[in-house]
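Sample 3 of the quickstart, ligand Phenylacetyl coenzyme A:
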Amino acid sequence: MVPIKSLEEKFQAAVDAEIKIEPKDWMPDAYRKTLIRQISQHAHSEIVGMLPEGNWISRAPSLRRKVGLLAKVQDEAGHGLYLYSACETLGIDREELFEQLNTGKAKYSSIFNYPTTTWADIGAIGWLVDGAAIMNQVMLCRTSYGPYARAMVRICKEESFHQRQGFEILLTLSKGSEEQRAMLQDAVDRWWWPSLMMFGPSDKESTHSAQSMKWKIKRKSNDELRQQFVDATVEQAKILNVTLPDPELKWNEERGHYDFGPIDWEEFWNVVKGNGPCNKERLAARVKAHDEGAWVRDAAVAFAEKQAKRRAEANKVA
Ligand code: FAQ
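Result:
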């Protein structure tokens, strides 16, 4: 029998040589579990992430805005589906993943537990939330697990379009009336800090980063990505003529980066633990949608069974 150690060494050597790990390849159990955890949390985030924006589909200010928003929300559904499929290649069933989400056992991104109270929130989500999501996800296109990396390529293209769509909504508001500019500023005030929290705890507090980086699941740390996001976004805020709600935000010549103020980690963990402004509402909406969709799943299974029976009978005749 080949000793486990040598299998692990071979695995790490493949990762180091940038050879993608595929579903049938040997992999350490902890690598498989880490991927199931991360990919499923990511899939759940895409699915729950439809809810805050879905809230505005029927209230979009014009037909053009409605069409754009509808397409974006549908894209997020598609991202969830690619990611559930990628996750299933690791040997877990989709029903089990849904069960984890619907019973509150699984995590999804903290950001989707905040309310969308005005139309400007839709622009702010596109600009800041999709902007943060892309910053994190571009590195995932090169993640070591093949199915996850391939799913991320298309997701990133779409997220990038969403970010531009959000920015364009805000740019329009920035050129509008005094009320529209105030609505824009208010949305940015509310979404800025939660967007920075999306990158996860600081590197010192992150439990999984070191191992995930060794396995090249993650290519950049939470703090590195957060900094990259701040640096890019401050410049874009100037074009929107909006103030980012951080008095400590300042260019640091020596570091070649923007310094920014402390993140309220108490708020972050509170939201992650289920006590954010909308956690209960989001979960209830998911459970309702899942229950109401039961007939579609039943019909799909019945159809597949009927087809299989027909095929079996046709084979018998032949
Ligand atoms: N919210 O040790 P780390 C999107 C948890 S998609 C909740 O640093 P890791 C698209 C973490 O799970 C947005 N929990 O963990 C869209 C862990 O808990 P655990 C989602 C969080 O995995 C846009 C613990 O804290 N993107 O927005 C959060 O190495 C607009 C310790 O943390 C992804 O999922 C958080 N923000 O790094 C849709 C990308 N942060 O599992 C609709 C893929 C951390 O031990 C509209 N995921 N935690 O119980 C990743 O890159 C990573 O999983 C991180 C966290 C970076 C999120």
